Amino acid sequence: MKIALDVNGSDEAPASELAGARRALEERDALDLILVGDPASVEPILSEWPDSLLDRVELEPATDRIHPGESPASAVRKRPDSSIVRGIRLQKEGRADAFISAGSTGAVMAASLIFLRPLPGVARPAIGTVLPTAKGPTLMLDAGANVDCKPMHLLQFARLGAIYAQDLMGVPEPRVALLNIGEEPEKGDELSVEAHMLLRESNLNFVGNLEGRDVIQGACDVLVCDGFVGNVLLKFYESVAEFVIGLLGRELDLQGVDLDLHKVFRALDYAEYGGAPLLGVNGVTIICHGKSPPKAIRNAIRVAVQAVESRMIAHIAGELGQSEANSADP
Amino acid sequence: MKIALDVNGSDEAPASELAGARRALEERDALDLILVGDPASVEPILSEWPDSLLDRVELEPATDRIHPGESPASAVRKRPDSSIVRGIRLQKEGRADAFISAGSTGAVMAASLIFLRPLPGVARPAIGTVLPTAKGPTLMLDAGANVDCKPMHLLQFARLGAIYAQDLMGVPEPRVALLNIGEEPEKGDELSVEAHMLLRESNLNFVGNLEGRDVIQGACDVLVCDGFVGNVLLKFYESVAEFVIGLLGRELDLQGVDLDLHKVFRALDYAEYGGAPLLGVNGVTIICHGKSPPKAIRNAIRVAVQAVESRMIAHIAGELGQSEANSADP
Which terminus of chain A is more exposed, N or C, with fewer CB under 10 A? Predict the structure, then answer.
C-alpha cells in the first residue's frame, strides 16, 4: 500500500507532516509513503531518518504551494507543480492509493473533483468530519464542501456517511440522523422537511432529526446536514474546545492546580481522529486541519490505510452507482 | 413600570419564577409585577412574602398551560386561559409594559405575532439571543423564529439587533457581522452572498463575514444569520458548556480539586444574560429557557425593564418604519 502525503501543507510544514509520517511508518510495516513537497526543505529532515524507514519512502518533488487565500479552482489549474495537484495526480496515475493534505481545503477538494472525478451516482462529493462526542465519534457531513444543497444531496451524504461508518468506524448498522431544529418530521426549513422524508423512505437506519443540543451526546453515528451549517458548527466546536481549555488553564494555574487539560479533554481532541475524508470521489482523499500536529498526520495516514484496506471506494461505487441505476428505472 | 411574568412556564414553575421575581422586586423599587399563572400554586408561596413586596404584585389568574409538544399557533387559539395568552394580552390591553415567559418558545412567539403584531417595516420578527464570548456578549439573531430567510430579512435582523445593542447593551455603534463559512464577500450560500451585499450597502457598521471559529472570540456585537443555523448553533453552544463542565467536574473530583466550575465559567453562563428578546413585534416579549433558574428570571426582568426604559420599541418603529417608507419611494 502506497499513500501520498503532501508535506507542503500544514502551518508547520514540512516538520509536522514528516514527524507524523515517521511515526506511521514505525508503527505499521505494510506501508510505503510518497512524500510530495519541496526537496530542499524535506531532505535535511530525511537525512536523520534510519535507512530502514527511508527504504519505504519516495520523494515526489513539488516546489509550488497553493496558499489558503487563493481561489481553489483557478489555483489548481495555474499550479501544476503544487504539492496538492502533484499528489492528487499520483492517485489518478495509479502510483498512490490515497492522498493526504493539510493544505487549502478548497484546493484539495477542487483538485480531487477535477482529476479524480465524482463516482457514478454521486452528484456532490462531501467532506465528512469526525466530531468527538460523549459516546465516541460521530461522522458529520457535509462539513463545508457544498452549500445550497437539495434534499437528494442530503440523502446521498447519508449513504456516503453510512458506508464510511461501516468501513472505517466499525459500525455495522450506522444510525443516521438529520441535523435539524426540532424532533418532529415537519420541523425545520424546506430542505430539512423534504430530506427527512427521503431519509425515512430509504433503506438506511434513519433515527430521525437531531437538534444542536443532542450532537455532543453522541446520539447517532452519521449526522447529515447542508455544508453551510456543518461548516459553522465544526468551526465553532473546534474554537469552543480551545477557548474552554484556555480559560480553565489560567484559572487552574491561579489556584496552583496541576492538571493536564488536554488529557482530560482527549475525548474532544480532533487530532485523535486524523483528517476529514472527501467522500464520493473516485479515490481516497483525506483533508487535515492546517494546524495538524504530528499525531493528527499519523492518524490521517491510519484513516487512509483503513479506507484503502476496506475497499471503501468500491463499496460507495457499488451502492450509489446501484441506486442511480434504480432511480433511472421507468 | 409594570412587567407581566408567566409563572406557569419553566420546568420548575412557579418556584423558579417567583424566586426570581422576588429578587427583582427587592433590587429595584420602581417596578411592579403582574404574575400570570395558577393561583392555587402561586398563593402558598406569596403568603410567605412581606407585605411591602406584595403591595407591588398583582395576580392574573391563568389556570391553563401550553405544553412544549403542542403546535404553537393552534395552542394559542385553543387556550385563551393559558398563562402565555393571558400575559401577552395584558400588554395588548395596555395593562403591562412587557411580558416574560419560560414556557413554550413557539407559543410565546405565536401569541406575540397574533396579538401584538409585527411593527411596520418588519417582515419577520426574530429571536435575539445573547451569546457569551471571550469579550462579553454578542447578540445573535435569528435564533430560531425564522427559517428559509431571504436576504432582506437578514438585513432587517441586523437593524433590529443594532437597535437592541444600542439600547440594552450600551454599544453606541454596534459592529454587525454576518455568520458565514468564509471571510470573503463571495463566500457562502446564495442567501449569505446577497445578504452580504445588502449589509455592505446599508448604513450599519457592518464588519463583514464571521466564521464559526470567530464567534467565541467576540468579534462583533450583533451576529446575523438564518434561524436554522442560529438555532443549531445556540443549542449546540448550551450543550457544549454543560458537557465540558460535567466532564471536568468528574476529573477534578477524582483529583481532589475543589473548584467552582460555574464560577470559572460565569462568562459562559446563559443565566447571566436573562432571556431572549423577540424583536420586531409591537411590544416587549422576553423568552426564557425552560430550565431558567431564579437568577435567569431576575435578569430577564432586568432586560425587560431596560427595553421599556430605553423606549426600544419606539426606536425600532422609527428606524424600520422609516426604511420601509424609503424603500417604497419610486
Answer: C
Task: Note whether B2 and B95 are within 8 A (CB).
Answer: yes
Q: Where are the domains of chain B?
A: 2-122+280-310, 126-266
Fold (topology level) of B2-122+280-310: Isopropylmalate Dehydrogenase (3.40.718)
Best probe of the A interface among B105, B193, B236, by most A CBs < 10 A, is: B236
Nearest to B247 among A148, A255, A264 (CB): A264
B148-174: pLDDT as tens digits: 999 999 999 999 999 999 999 999 999
Let me know: does B33 contact B119? Beta carbons within 8 Å: no
Whether B148 and chain A come into contact, CB under 8 Å, resolves to yes
**Spans in chain A with pLDDT lower than 70:** 261-271, 323-330
Asked if the domains at B2-122+280-310 and B126-266 fall in one CATH topology, the answer is yes
- DSSP secondary structure string for all residues of B188-208: S-HHHHHHHHHHHHSSSEEEE
- Write down the architecture of domain A128-266 according to CATH: 3-Layer(aba) Sandwich (3.40)
Phi, psi of B31 (to 5 degrees): -150, 130
What number of other Cβ atoms are within 10 A of residue B69's Cβ? Answer: 9
Asked if A227's CB is within 8 angstroms of B181's CB, the reply is yes
Residue pair B178/B210 in contact (Cβ under 8 Å)? The answer is yes
Chain B residue whose CA is closest to A191: B148
A–B CB contacts, 8 A cutoff, strictly below? 132
Mean pLDDT to the nearest integer, B313-318? 96
Average pLDDT, chain B: 92
Of the pLDDT bands very low, low, confident and very high (cuts 50, 70, 90), residue B330 is very low
Residues of A in contact with B241 (CB under 8 A): 244
Which pLDDT value is given to residue B326?
53
Each residue's pLDDT tens digit, B111-126: 999 999 999 999 999 9
Shortest Cα distance, chain B CAs vs residue A143, angstroms: 10
Beta-ladder partners of A129: A140
- A209, A185 contact by CB (below 8 A): yes
| Predicted TM-score of the model (pTM) | 0.92
Domain B126-266 belongs in CATH node 3.40.718.10: yes
Quick one: closest CA in A to B183, which residue? A69
ipTM: 0.91
Query: B227 falls in which pLDDT band (50, 70, 90)?
Result: very high
